[in-house]
Amino acid sequence: MNPDDVKIAKRETPFRGYFRVDKYHLKHRLFEGGWSADFTREVFERGHAACVVLYDADLDQVVLVEQFRIGAYAALSSPWWDDRASPWLLELVAGIIDEGETPEGVIRRETLEEAGCEVGELVPVVKYLVSPGGSSETMYIFCGQVDAAKADGVHGMTEEHENIRVITIPAEDVFRRLDEGRINNSMTIIGLQWLRQHHADLRAKWRKRP
């Protein structure tokens, strides 16, 4: 099926704040033939985003960032998290794609803003829907070549209440943290699992020093 198999009777926006919620009145074709009954769904609109696995092949290190996430804080009230969980998450550098930008452009801008270093070659990893049951958000993941020795400090835009710490970690340590469940957000897990799968080939390709 495709978008022509959906009929939208009305779309409205009952909430507009830091993010937006749209309400759809719709119906769609059924697998067994015919059309569904009319129904409504709310869609959380937060924009589309891009993120990057920042990898230094010479040092065999990964550059990550750590920052507070309100969604993670809210999730900790559920019974599935214990006292060791934190609303400060280790993540890939990421950013929202503004109008007129490309995913690659966002990566280069955000890497400079959040990690204080520049990206060299970019390798596309995957494009995926983050939570399609209730959000339109699409995430573009890349792997980017960097000099990890230049990545350091605390960054972020004060007017946007960002407080982002740069952390540089040996690749094998990152993979161990994945296995231990210490990295627990989807974009970072997906990107780092890709790096683990392509680690040897990528290091051979990007390494400048023997």
Short description:
This protein has 210 residues and is of the alpha+beta class. The protein contains 4 helices and 11 strands. 23% of the residues lie in helices and 36% in strands.
Structural account:
It is a single chain. This protein is an alpha+beta fold. The chain is 23% helix and 36% strand. The chain is built from 4 helices and 11 strands; from the N terminus they run E-E-E-E-E-H-E-E-H-E-E-E-E-H-H. The protein has helices at residues 70-75, 103-115, 171-179, 186-206; strands at residues 6-16, 20-28, 39-45, 49-56, 61-68, 88-91, 93-96, 122-129, 138-145, 154-155, 164-170. Strand 4 and strand 5 form a beta hairpin. It is globular, with a radius of gyration of 20 Å.
Give the SSE map:
Blueprint lengths: L5 E11 L3 E9 L10 E7 L3 E8 L4 E8 L1 H6 L12 E4 L1 E4 L6 H13 L6 E8 L8 E8 L8 E2 L8 E7 H9 L6 H21 L4
Parallel strand pairs: 4-9
Antiparallel strand pairs: 1-2, 2-3, 4-5, 4-7, 5-6, 5-11, 8-9, 10-11
Estimate the helix proportion, in percent: 10-25%
Total helical elements: 4
Order of helices and strands: EEEEEHEEHEEEEHH
- Dominant shape: globular
Our Rg estimate from Cα atoms comes to: 20 Å
- How much is the average pLDDT? 95
Distance between the termini: 51 Å
List keywords for this structure.
210 residues, alpha+beta
